[in-house]
Amino acid sequence: MSYFNVRVYGLLINDANQLLVSDEQSGGMSFSKFPGGGVEYGEGLIDALKREFMEECEAEIEIISHFYTTDFFEKSSFNDSQIISIYYLVRETGPLKLNYKTRVFDFDPDTLQSFRWINLTDLHEDDVTFRTDKTAVSLLLSLIAEDAD
């Protein structure tokens, strides 16, 4: 049975103009994405994103603004659902307590998730795996280029 799979993600840019990316392994696949995940039944988008940041990053965040919502068909890489992804610009409300990596998929023992900062000047669509995230990166790079003009 096909269904909609609503996902929510946070674009977190630090004071050094770096974007937070999550490297993960699930379902026999390795991928890079933004922190966030699925919206649970009965949950709003903002509450879901805050919950996901607590679960993944042990961090409280605040929403700056809506950034992008998927506007094309995207089938899930993991099941028979249609992905609808909503992206927000976010900021941390306190220091992040993560063990940052510098290499892709550099997992600690007994974990299949790690986090990296990518300098905005080095950011490229290929830094993330999924089409929806690549679109968000492309839009972010366009905004950065506009601001530079």
TrEMBL record:
Cofactor: Mg(2+)
Nudix hydrolase domain sequence ranges: 3-141
Pfam families: NUDIX
A single GO molecular function term of this UniProt record: hydrolase activity
Superkingdom of the source species: Bacteria
Residues annotated as transmembrane: none
Alphabetic keyword roster: Hydrolase
InterPro entries to which the protein is assigned, alphabetical: NUDIX_hydrolase-like_dom_sf, NUDIX_hydrolase_dom
Protein's name according to its UniProt entry: ADP-ribose pyrophosphatase YjhB, NUDIX family
